[in-house]
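Before the break, one more example. Copy the sequence into your notebook; we will annotate it together after we see the structure.
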Amino acid sequence: MQPRYEWAKYILELTGWKGKIVPVKSSDFKTAAQRPEFSAMNTFPLKETIGYELPDWKSASQRFLGSN
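Here is what the structure looks like once it is written out:
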C-alpha cells in the first residue's frame, strides 16, 4: 500500500467517514512540481540531538484529531 493512502484511510476511519477511498499513484496526477515517490523524513538523530522522539504517525494523527 502507498503510505499516503494508508494515512488517508486511517484518518477517515478515525473521523467515522463511511465513503469509499481508492488508492492511486501520484503519477496519475499532473502537477507543475516533480514529487519524489517516497518522501518520509528520517527522524533518527532527533532524539539524540534534542532529547525528544516524535510519535509514530498513527499516534500523531490521533493526537491531532483529538481521538486518543
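Residues 26 and 37 are 8 Å apart (CA to CA). The chain has three helices and no strands. Try to locate both features in your own notes.
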